[in-house]
Fold this sequence. Notes:
Elements (H helix, E strand, L loop, with lengths): L1 H26 L8 H16 L11 H11 L1 H22 L4 E10 L5 E2 L14 E2 L4 E12 H72 L5 H35 L16 E5 L4 H11 L1 H22 L4 E11 L8 E10 L4 H70 L5 H35 L14 H23 L8 E5 L18 H7 L19
Antiparallel strand pairs: 1-4, 2-3, 4-6, 5-8, 6-7
Helix pairs in contact: 3-5, 3-11, 4-5, 5-6, 5-8, 5-10, 6-10, 7-9, 8-9, 9-10
Amino acid sequence: MDCLKKDNNKIYKILLVVTAALTMSACAISPESITDNARSQRIKQDMIDLYQGQEAVSGPISLSEAIARALKYNLDQRVKLMERAVATGSLEVSRFDLLPKLVLNAGYNDRSNDAGAISQSLISGSQSLEASTSQERRRNTFSSNLAWNVLDFGVSYANAKQISDQVNISNEMRRKIIQNIVSDVHTLWWRVVVADKMTIEIDTILSEAREAINRSRELEKKKIEKPMDALQRQRSLLELIDRMSELRKEMSHSKLELANIMNLKPATKYTVLVTDEQEIPEYRFDINKLETVALASRPEIREEDYRKRISTLEVRKALLRMFPGLEISTGRNYDSNKFSFNNTWSTVGVQVSWNIFNLFSGHAAQKQAETQVDLANIRRLALSAAILTQVHLTWQRYLETKEDYWLASELSDVENRISDNVAAAKKANRVGMSDVIMSRASAVAGRLRQGLAYADLRGSISKIHNVLGTDPLPDEVNGRDVSTLAKAIKQHLNKQTSSLLSKAAKQDPNKAETKSVKNIKEKPKPKDNQLDESVVGKILDNHQVSLEYTTVEPIALESSH
């Protein structure tokens, strides 16, 4: 007995030392900030990961290639892909919750003394048997138990259905991101087209304007020109430089934004593919049909449909939890104890459990879940109203941008004709070089307004597809490279346009009209009805060069962006 007591004391001491060591190590933990070296390494790795595996730009980028690059490399789109993968993984995990629980246990037991017992008579109170044991000090045990709870199965099934709807929601959120990316690419790409066409002309005008300012200052110093006339001329030229510089900045910003959407490095030099003639279909839609298409296809409204189904399943789960739980179990056991008559045996059991308080809390949970369903209905109705408003606003914007483009084209034509007449007057020494520069600047600004109006028109067309929930990406693409993806996107967009025309057009979709667009880089030739040189002076006196223009910015609504 003394030896056993000594062994027990040693075990207790060892346990005490181990417990104290673990406690001290836990108390020794303190906050540790990330070092500058670690941050530097992280930055280097992030810069590599940002642009790793991307195909280099090998030539002018077409619209379909810009969309392909944006969809393949854009980080927002990749985030939604990862969120979809996480949701899909959660669904795979939830499916295992529907299976019965199979629990395997294996153990080794060692006692410091024998597990013995004596018996005492209940009548006389005397000891009836000597101390005896029926268990070894050291023994191995093993058991396997299979249990299936009917109530847990019902709740797990509802959970799995909810998670599957979460996967559907993540798919709709990805659709929304893709549609917004494609819409932004359309708007920015056409603005970059204008920038590539007009940058050289704008830089030339700015250079000539600065030279004209220097000449005017020299004339002012030499008193060849009246001070007031010189100052007014300089002011006009400076205002010209200011406005043209602002327009140039705006176009350069569009190029940076397009590079960002395509996930190109900000310093990447690239150009866009430009054609001389462009055509725009003259859409004649039935607005009521457009509303129907939008309410059926928009990712946001589909997302609300899935959220309502999730709330409905929550009501079912609240009802299930009020029922008693029925558990059916079976198992197989093993014990190496030599005193056991049977070392292996099987078990079968049925157990019913019922938390009575669930009857009271279940009604409250059910009511709350039903309120969530009502909220989902109201939220869907509010979103539907917003979508209908967006459809009408987007259609109105398309009609307005068409009118703006027509007006900008007419103004550009007039400005070019005035510039030609002023140039002719300069040859006859009727006007000065500053007047020529001002008129040329007005002509360049007119072509720039025309180009930007055309870009806005193309952007409004892409907004129609966006507000209707049109999918720009085909379901399957035979290839992962940018060129293959670009071809597939171009073909799919054409099909989507034809499908939209067949669904919502007022007339035969095959009769949709198209209109050619003038090349904004080349100045139109002078027409026969040019202004007479005798009235050029009056025109210059009355004509105020205006470089301001109006563009209709994209509709910024929360549910579409």
